[in-house]
Amino acid sequence: MTGILMMVIAIVVLGCGYVFYGRYLQKKWGIDPNAKTPAYELEDGVDYVPADTNVVFGHQFASIAGAGPINGPIQAAVFGWLPVLLWILIGGVFFGAVQDFSSMYASVKNKGRTIGYIIEEYIGKLGKKLFLLFCWLFCILVIAAFADVVAGTFDGFAASAKEGVKNNYSNGAVATTSMLFILEAVILGIILRKGKLNKWINTGIAIVMLIAAVALGLAFPIYISKGMWHIIVFVYILIACVAPVNVLLQPRDYLNSYLLIFMIVAAVIGILVGNPACNLEAFTAFEVNGSYLFPTLFVTIACGAVSGFHSLISSGTASKQIKNEKNMLPVSFGSMLMECMLAVVALIAVASFSKGEAAAQGLVTQPQIFAGAIANFLTEIGLSYDLVFTLINLAVSAFALTSLDSVARIGRLSFQEFFQDDDDKEKEKAHIKVLTNKYFSTIITLVLAYLLAKVGYAQIWPLFGSGNQLLSVLALVACAVFLKKTKRQGAMLWIPMVFMMAVTFTALGITIYKLGGQLITVGLSLGNTLQLIFAALLLILGVIVAIQGIKRLAQKE
Questions:
Q1: Does residue 375 contact residue 358 with C-beta atoms inside 8 Å?
Q2: What band does 513 get if pLDDT is binned at 50, 70 and 90?
Q3: Taking the domains of the chain in order of start, what are their residue ranges?
Q4: Which of 236, 243, 314, 504 could share a disulfide with 103, CB 3.0–4.6 Å?
Q5: Which CATH class is domain 3-10+53-554?
Q6: Mean of the pLDDT values across residues 490-500?
Q7: How many other CB atoms sit within 10 Å of the CB of residue 253?
């Protein structure tokens, strides 16, 4: 198996999945291109803001990708390339894309409301409350994990692959460019709102801004410690979380989407030029380093196959920006398959290294392995290794930082929705007004996430994976009930729903068992204690909501 052959197989499978299965679902569920979407019906200039398809696609793709489709496949490659490739392709088409599309579809058909509201409407109020609590806890995990990833990527004093280098140039350049992106996003947002220019002119302006930011970042790297970056990143998230989406979120994602697409195109060109050999075994073993293929593979590879986090983006932010119902398929289903392609590229990247070769080159983390492989490929056409390595690292950090923007907003909305009530008398109570205030809900969410981020990304990621996949179960249950109650075909969601239940309940059960054993034998550290508490809460809440949904699904009309 070569890199080119693996990539061609992926392109064919994913392309056929979109053309045949995606359009089949669209036809089966039905869309109304003449319907007034929530973006227009409830336009408020903050969350409900109509946007062109390419802008919403950029937001959706940049938000769902994060670091997941790179980290997951590279970590799971210990089981061999074959199970990883099969799960990315099968899971991506029949699990992930279906979940993303159904979540956005259910949201748009219900005034752009989140999965939490879908659960309340079709399962019950208690189910909604429990889901929102689950969602809020999960968002705290995501913010903590990704904030630590971003801070580590920006760390100007991190250990460098080059001996004797005091400052990490690559990280410093990435930090400068990322900060410039934020400033440029605000400017681009003003141009998009006030300029009323042709979309191709807007695209040209975005690309020029992108090139300028990269050039300035390479010329003027910033050297700041990881601890200080933690603070800066959380201050940025605070601002991004409460600002109107068309001021920062939309234009930033639009700008970043071009960088991310450039990264994928560059990687594909590198694979075509280098045609790397696959130095990984097709299959290693069912047990590696104490972890079993089931459920480890299906929890580790989340964002590249199926990810519950995507349902929050599809129903939490993107659905409120859809101009026309016909745009839902390319934005949701299409973005998921694009992410699957990125996951396959990450698999090819890690497979290109012989055993121990990446570590010998000073490539330790998953993003470094990915960037190093693509840089190796592109040196075949004469490009500088250092330049490509820096640009790919920049793109990976853009993924993570963009996901932070969106998930922080969703965490804030989940906290607000938990305390909101349709009873007018309840709404007027002083404590309810405080708890549903967007500034209060944002601050309490980010403070808890900041404390957890100090524990470190490596300790948070395993629990994030399990919680993420359990969230996909709840989203699939909610969408299946919605489709049944609205007389639409939803049987295609049942197999993914049952399979992911088996995966997530097993994974969380193993996590709790291991952490409980450590508590008895050696005691728990702060990080493990937090993980044990979160794991237990997520499992309990997830099981209760899933049971309620399945009961509704089994009810006769």
A1: no
A2: confident
A3: 3-10+53-554
A4: 314
A5: mainly alpha
A6: 94
A7: 29
